[in-house]
What does this fold into?
Amino acid sequence: MTLDSKTELDGTDRHILMNLLAEGRLSISELAKMVGMSAPSVKDRVRRLEDRGIIRKFTVDINMEALGYNLEAIVRIKPRPGSLHLVEKMIMDEARFTSCDKVTGDDCFITRLALKSIQELDRLLDPFHEKAETNTSIIKSSPIRSRAPMS
It folds into this structure.
C-alpha cells in the first residue's frame, strides 16, 4: 500500500509519529506507555504507518560538532549552461555536502556543507567555480531542523 494524498492520520497516529520523531529508538513498550495503548496495538499501528509509506525509515541524528564540524553553510549553486549534470556529480562526490535539493528558480541546487573551519570553504568550493556560480551563507543556528507538518 502506498501513501495517498487523501490519507488522514488520527490523533493516535500523530502521537506515535511525534514521539518517534523525537526519539526513533523508542522501544514499542516505551512508545505504548507514551500513547496509552498496549504494545501489540502500537506495534500494529507502526507497521501500518510503514506499510502506508508514512514512515519510510528510522535514522540517526549525528552531532556534527562532536565530529569536529563546527560550522555549516548553505550553498546555493547555479550551474553554467551545459554543466548541470557535471555539477550534480561534483556535489554527490563531495562527502562534506550533507544535503542537496534540486530546486526551481535562479539556483538549481541548495545544499548544506559541513565545515571544520571557515578556511575550508574556498578549498571545497573552488572546483565548482569553473562550472557554476555559488552563493554561500554560514548558518548561525537552526531553530527548526526537521519536523513533520502534523496539522
